[in-house]
Each structure stands twice: as structure tokens, then as C-alpha cells.
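User: Need the bound-state model for uridine-diphosphate-N-acetylglucosamine:
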Amino acid sequence: MDKFIIQGGRSLSGMIRASGAKNAVLPAMAACLLAPGRSVLTNVPNVMDVRTMRRLLVRLGAKVDFEDNRMTVDVPEKLKCEAEYEIVKQMRASYYVLGPLLARFGRAKVSLPGGCSIGARPIDLHLKGMEALGAKIQILHGYVEAQGRQLKGARVLLAGTHGVSVGATINVMMAAALAKGITLIESAALEPEVVSTAQMLISMGADITGAGTPVMTIAGVDGLRPAETRMIPDRIEAGSLMIAAAISGGCITIEDCRPDHLGAVIEALRAMGVKVAAGDEMVTVEARRRVKPIDLTIAPYPGFPTDMQPQMMALMATATGLSVITETIFENRFMHVPELQRLGADIKIEGKSAVIKGVPESTGAPVMGSDLRASAALVIAGLKAEGKTEVNRVYHLDRGYERWERKLKKLGAKIRRVHEPMAV
Ligand code: UD1
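Assistant: Bound-state model below.
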């Protein structure tokens, strides 16, 4: 198991490129299953979740080549229609194959993903959507078994108790693309990854309007054709780098990113006194002194993303006063708090909120990431902490950040990866 060793206290400076968006690639890979033939995806980040999804597509019968951030997915006329527990338990987004398999073959069997460290994460909205399109759903032996020889367009309301769902919106949209008639998705998620998947489906021949608004209309078509699609830049990676620059008191420019996808993050950083200059596809961040505290409520896009909450908390822990973060999307997304406390942070959890009292100094310590974004927050906190921080279990980080230690090193951080053989 790998770990990072960080020597804190260096300001970041220089230019870096954002990678392609993991959360756009995963549904895009599943969308390839909707059309027999060879689809091409470019700007694909080489991260573990993408490699897991690749294994799943190969198990289903596709041929997938992946080199230099370019992926070709060869989809045969027939596919296996089962996503096994062994893969789904490693990555929840495996459920993205449900919609395409059901739409193309009239059946799909996908393992239930189970919970994860940030919350229960049910998939009831995905299933509600498929049922609305006419599928019969059964849960048997830990698997969702969906049958529906010809899906039919319908009106689907996708709001749950926690609000809108990115995954359910995309899954239902993919299934509806091949359904007979018109589907109306109400309370659709607005995330850029929903829009990028819709654009990919449109280039494959789908008839979709309203992506990026709460009501989407999908007129089903008889078949889709393969296409070539460039992945959008990863807004969460770019935002994490912006926060890394801010906590280090440095100045960096991120190229190949989409500041228009980062509105809430830019606004929050500016309110904290960080200078942010946004261009068309680049952003420069400069912070020469301690940031000011702010209060922040996490919300679906275009609100402040839950996937940036831990990293933002790491920054708030160094601010000149009291900040409050209220998490509204995942009930258990404060697992990083005790680890940040190990680095000297002063944080109290009160229900859905964390009250963060900024401290001027923090000190390095061994810490452990509990999930992908929590690990990013610990790396960010380690850049500031005086002395040595050891971030264990970086496999969480490797799920979604491409060569992050190399990127941070290029920006001047003192960080190295240490490979530790597994204990037997
Ligand atoms: C996606 C992102 C994840 C991000 C999340 C919220 C991917 C691969 N993952 O996850 O990084 O943190 O959006 O921005 O893109 N919910 C239900 N029933 C459902 C589905 C979701 O109650 O059927 C709840 C969830 O538990 C959560 C909320 O709805 O509380 C939002 O989840 P959702 O948008 O679906 O997250 P994902 O698509 O799984």
C-alpha cells in the first residue's frame, strides 16, 4: 500500500494542466455500450476508477484499449449483461452500465453497491427511473435484476430526500435514449458531467434537449452509432489544486480547465481573500497571506460541490477566524475531521455542520485517508503543516487524481510516494 510523505511549508508556484474529469469518463465509458462498433474517448485520466470501469467493460465483452489518455471501446453486437459484485463493490459508478444494458438488450443484472464511507448511498432513484420506463425490477441475492424488452418513454421525477441525483439522471437519460417515445426527466441534476454525457449521446445520434436545466426531454431513437468524444476537464481536481495553492500561500495557473464549471469555488475563494483570475480555459490563483473565514453550505451544482468540502475544510482550518461548513448531500462526510485534528486543526461537528476555528500553525503527523476527497484534503493540509506529514492509504486518492504527487512536485511541493509492501 502506497503512502505520501510531505514536507510542509513550501509555497506552490508555476503552471499545471487539469486532467480529464473522472466523473465524466465513467458514464461516457458506459454510454459506449449503447452503440455497437468502436467509440473513442480522449483526454481520459489514467486513474484507478477508470481502470476499474475498463475491467467491467471487458468482462461484459467489450474490447478496450487505453494508452496516452486515449481510449477505444470496441462494443460487439452481443454483450454479457451482468456486472458482478466483485467489481461493483470496488466502484459504485459501475451502476452506470444498468441503463445502457437494459436499453440495448432488455435485461441487466447489476450487483447492489452497498454503502460507502461517506454515507448510505441508495440507488432507489435509478430503479424508480427504470421502472417508470417500463422495466420490471427485482432485488435477488444482492443483485438488481432488471427486465424490459422495449422501454417506453415516460415522465420521471428524480428528486429524492437528499435532492437531485447526478447518477440517476445520467443512468435514466442513457436508458431513455433508446426507449420508444418521449421521456421527460424532472428534477434533473445540472452538473457539467450530466451535460457532457448528454452531448456525447447527441453526437451518437440521440435526441436530447434541456441538459443542464431541471427538465430534460429525451426522444428515444432506434439505434445509436459510435462517436469520438473529448472528456471535459476535471473541475474537482482543478478546484483541489486551487485550494492547494491557497493554503501554501503561493500562486499557480491551471491550464485546460473550465472556470465556468468552478463558479462556486471561485466565489468562495475570493470571499476568503484569495485572488482568482479566470480566463476562458485557465485560472490563476494567488494567496499571499492567511485566508479569511467564511460560512459555506454544500449544494448540488451550481452550488459548492460536496466533493470539494473536505479540501475546503483543510483550508478553513488555517483561516484567521471561525468558519462553518454545512454538508447537505452525504450524511457521513466528516470522516476527515479527526485526521485534520491530528494535524492541529480545531474543528467541532454539530449535526450537519462543522465549525472550524482557524489556527495559525499546524504540525505534520501520520494520517489516514478514508475516501477519495478526504485523502486530497489531507494532502492539502500536509502542504501547510510544519514538518513531516505521512498520508497513508493513498489508493483512495489514486482512484480519482492522476499522478497527483507529480503535479504537486512540479509546482514546488516536497512530496514523494513510498511503496510499502502489504503485510502478510
Ligand atoms: C456523483 C459523483 C460523486 C459526488 C456526487 C454528488 C460520480 C461517479 N460520482 O455521485 O463524486 O459526490 O455525485 O455530487 O459522478 N441518492 C438517493 N437515491 C439514489 C441516488 C442518490 O437517495 O438513487 C442520494 C445520495 O445518497 C446522495 C444524493 O442523493 O445523498 C446525491 O447523490 P448522487 O448525485 O446520486 O451521487 P452519485 O451520482 O452517486
